User: Fold this.
Amino acid sequence: MPRAVSRGVRLPPFQRLVDDHAAELHRFLVASVGQTDAEDCLQETLLSALRAYPRLRHGDNLRAWLYTIAHRKATDAVRWRLRHPVSDLDEATGGLASDPQPTTDDGLWRCVRALPAKQRAALVHRFVFDLAYRDVGERMGISEEAARQNVSTGLRRLRKEVER
Amino acid sequence: MTDLEQRLRNAPPAELDRKALDAALAQRAGKASLLDVAYAELDSPIGELVVFVTPRGLLRVKYADEPIEGVLAEVAARVSPRILRAPRRTDPVRRELEGYFALRRRSFDLLIDWSLVQGFAGNVLRETSRIPFGDVRSYGQVARQAGSPRAARAAGNALGSNPIPIVVPCHRVLHADGGLGGYSGGLDRKRYLLALEGSLPA
Assistant:
């Protein structure tokens, strides 16, 4: 067990990170991967963060750090889901893999999930969280300009998919 | 704003079951040896306690008057920031404390994690942990047993900063003349504990 983090790094107790950010990370993940996979993604995100936590060299912007991990977990989950699609059988029988709370706009969100990871994350930050481009960039660790670019490319692509 | 943007804004609601998340997280973190410090609140006749445990043992017992944020920050800095609220991990401590307050138990079988005490204070507190239920010592006696007969005042300071009150029974140390001396949790609590054990001086 690691002892005495005494390099002058002041990290808050991990429980504070959970208390402060679990709900918004969950919202981000529901929009990114869907209700079915969001819960597990959130647990994976927090476990990965917990594993790396004592090795962080500073405690600045822990929120952006958590979003980076969540984004990675969401990307993994979407890839996994593409290889293991929810089957019609599951859907029909209400099996474990089906979405417990089907939403009215399911088709749209399926298309969002099919977008490239950065565009998907940018759209979620921009519209689900209603953030300015600067804040979208900050949460994704990219520039404001790159954030704007990802949102507009993502929107264009999404429109094509949705109208198809 | 386009229709598509509006539809994105109307994202499905995300209801997070925090209780389930906390339980799952504590369980999985424990299994992966990522839970360095677990803590939980518990009720006692002398107010709410918060207990902190590590894989080594009981690390800290906090009385209600101490702000939790300060204690969490201290534990994060001095032991590990991998801290989660995980009530199930503290169950053995809860059971033993409940037994003690109900007079079903006169000694604790808990392992102690001494990480928060150093040097002479450690000697003093280890000696103190050997004072049996219903017995008392003077500050001088404890100092002598800890190896520094003339350090009664230093012993008093060590006892005053005992991170594990009740279980390391610093309330059993009194002035040589029978006066109560001090107590980090306040003299009312010291009096309560001594009365519980039948050793309150007249």
